[in-house]
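Subgroup meeting minutes
Present: P.N., E.W., G.H.
Scribe: E.W.

1. P.N. recapped why we're keeping a running log of single-chain structure predictions: easier to compare across weeks, and new members can see raw inputs and outputs side by side.
2. G.H. added today's entry (361 aa).
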Amino acid sequence: MARILGIESSCDETAASIVEDGERILSSVVASQLDVHAKYGGVVPELASREHLRSIVPVVREAMAEAGLAWPDLDAVAATSGPGLAGSLLVGLTYAKSICFATGLPLIAVNHIEGHIHAVILEAKQRGTPVEFPALAMIVSGGHTHMFEASGSAYKLLGRTRDDAAGEAFDKVGKLLGFGYPGGPVIDRLAPFGDPDAVPFTSARMKGNTLDFSFSGLKTAVLRWVESHPMQEGIEARKALLRVNPRPTDGEWLAVTSQDVLDLVASFQHSVVEQLLRHALGATSLMENAKSLVISGGVACNSGLRAAVTQRTIGMPVHFPSFGLSTDNAVMIAAAAFVKFAQGEFAGFDCAAEPNLILAK
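Output recorded in log:
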């Protein structure tokens, strides 16, 4: 039996969790910085680091208390070492090192992207429907859009975005239309009220690696559509709504959003989802021995993506994480660390935060 404390601080969530044997969640605590960054329309790295410093100690203490454990009850401490924001990564990794220094516990450095994959593996085991390998793993979030061939703890990169990540494109379009930050969840909530075929966006066709993604052109197409239509009054109305109520209901959004904008967001979301699924299906056709498809990361919460998957013939089991483990959390870090713990892959105190850390080439 191995109990691992996981710490996640790669971007704007300070999280700690204790997971036993890579499967049993004993505690999970997440401190969100959403309200801090919303007023700026996106994550401000300096503010993120400052908020991590404020939250890291109480979050870890709460995770320990929730699990009912003391330091001698742990077997290791794991922390995200990359990729992510340099200042944010340093807070969590440095605190993990200090715990290890004081207690003598071994340190495990975890790749944030691998963590997202293990969030799915953990919950699939709990459901009694474990992920079969080799699997196609697609990580889709605000900072990442990658596809890997995953075989246990070995990974091969199949494709990645050449510009914006899918979640980043969602948030930028949301901000452009006056939905604030993060805009992706609002677009997802309003898309069902629009016609996904109303605006004929063209899909990016990549030269070279056809499994690579590109969302920058789609984002620009939305901008050009906005510039060619009289939309400023509606955008200002939505910004005014946010100043009064930072979390509007669907009804409040609909009251200040015209049908043409609803059609626009529905068409935009449809185009993003289609590109993701087209690439996933393309990858599975190249992986002749693929046995399952894993979709994780913040965009895995998107209802349009989940619905589209159920409507397609994928040809293999598809695994999504729960909503709580789709976005950044420490459960996934502790779960990914268990594999390294079993293999004796420990990090030294010279382990550095790596903002551009890669999982595989």
